[in-house]
Give the backbone structure.
Amino acid sequence: MKIKITQSQLHNITKIGLFVCVIALIVELFPTENKFKYQFEIGKPWSYELITASFDFPIYKSEQQITKEKDEILKNYTPYFKLDTTVFKTQFLKLVSDWKKKNGEAPRFQNYIKLKFNEIYSIGIISVEEYNQLIDNGRANISCIMPNRVTYTMPVENIYTPKTAYEEIIKNAPETLKSYDLNLYLIENLKYDSTTSELSKTDILKNLSLTSGMVQTGERIIDRGEIVTPESFLMIKSLKIEYEKRKGTLQQSTIVVVGEIIMILSLISLFFMYLYLFRPRIFNSIGNLLFISLLIVMIIGMTTFTIQFTSFSYYLVPFALLPIIVRVFFDSRTALFAHVITMMIISFIVDNSFQFILLQVTIGMVAVSSLKDMTQRSQLAQTALYIFLSYAVMYLALELISEGDLQRVHLQPLIPFGISSLFLLFAYVLIYIFEKIFGLISSITLVELTNINSDLMMRFAELAPGTFQHTLQVSNLATEAAKKINANSLLVRTGALYHDIGKMKQPGLFTENQMGGTNPLSVMEYEDAARIVVNHVKDGIEIAKKSRLPEQIINFIATHHGTGKTKYFYNSFINAHPNKKPNEEAFTYPGPLPNNKETAILMMADAVEARSRSLSIYTEESINEMVEDMINGQIADGQFKDAPITFRDVETVKAVFKEKIKNIYHTRIVYPELKKLEE
């Protein structure tokens, strides 16, 4: 038995799959190690919640305390040196041999030299560097290790260096010996024994305690607003050490992962629920859901990467990119909602969550407010400046509250705020990329498309001047109506400008482009004439695609007549052939029906503007009747059943059209002519 899945079911399954993937990706992006998320400093107020010990832990001494105690213990420490007793004999025999070679006989003072060499090498000679180091470290004694491992203590002041050894020998030596270079035979025989020395040092320090007390489970450590004292600082730091020890060995426990999943699931569910209830147009589009989800995951991923793999501040991440880009393509409320949800998720992986949330909600509001009507690219640079100023003001305010002293305010964090604000300028590139990938359209693109000096618009005005003037009037009508019912007026304006570009193909066949004479359509068969008129929709779509117009604009071209009929030729055919059934397809536009407020407004504006040109007289009554008749007829034909437009909206649109058309065709005074003076 085969299971048949409808298009609607497949659509819903895809949404559920996307929902699950978003949650899985965010959980995967969360740091794999739980870090201690509090920042603290002696003398500063504690800006977090009450902290109590959730387990017993020792209070670790500070580095300064440990260093001081180490220095105290090591005052009597003596480093170990090995004494090489064989050097004396080797160096003495070498001296005698060299003397004989040079003088041809043994040295006369051989016994004196032997005595002095034995005396000096028995005590030991060390290098000047090691001797100075012993003096600098305040060492009074060293421990000498004999070849037989017998150890004894030697005062440092008794030890020789090559220089002092030479001075000792020649002090009472005969003049002949003084002229001989004895330095060649005075080398170090006392060598530092690092292994034994370190073992001895470790043994001495093993009794040094690194802790100075215990904190019991449930014991209060510090509460919000309290000043961090040296004592509480040590307790918090000890808690951090023990916390990271425990988490470092266990990594993430199952309970932690479950908690993260529940938290992320709840917040993402809230966002999808918001879209479902208040933004069905976004929710019903897989592309739109995928786009916003990608933005959320991207911002969270950038934050996690910065925290885990760099030493930079996470405030370098341009968090405001999310509300800016969502606002450009959708609306302010959706942008702010997505931003707040994302920042709430990120707050679980950053330190000082309260400050983070406060700053990010503020800049989200600023980003959305400053882009209320984004019609120029320069607005993005202004927004980046406003966001930096908001960062700076809010951060300085928080610092003043926590420090209570202007001199203690740190300005260094303003640097990452400035850099992240500069990163917002990359939104230009991202907006363009997302437009191409997801088939979206931004306000900036719409403004560019409304330029009537573009090549396509100039060609339109040249080939079909009457139709072009018609589109300008329709655009004005539709824009005013869209503003009144909170539709996207810029989108309507743009769609209206292009809705009739199909008439460029055969402009002379349409009455608005004819300069008098016989209408070519009037001599054709009604069906053939109707097909030509109907085909201007198909021709318009073809021209739009060749000109690479966005799909949203092509939608206006396709829907501006819906599935209505060419009433003039249809009615004429029935009147001429009352007993003949007409070919409905020949007289009917292919559709589809308008599917949003904006395309519905255009359909009404197009019909009303065209009909207004055929009125014989322009009075308030005739205009009102014409508007009511045209729009009510479209409603009766079911042309708006796919558009989310209410009867109240329709009545508002009617009122706008009536007022605008009255202003266009209002009665003007007749200027009196000058009478000729009688001669």
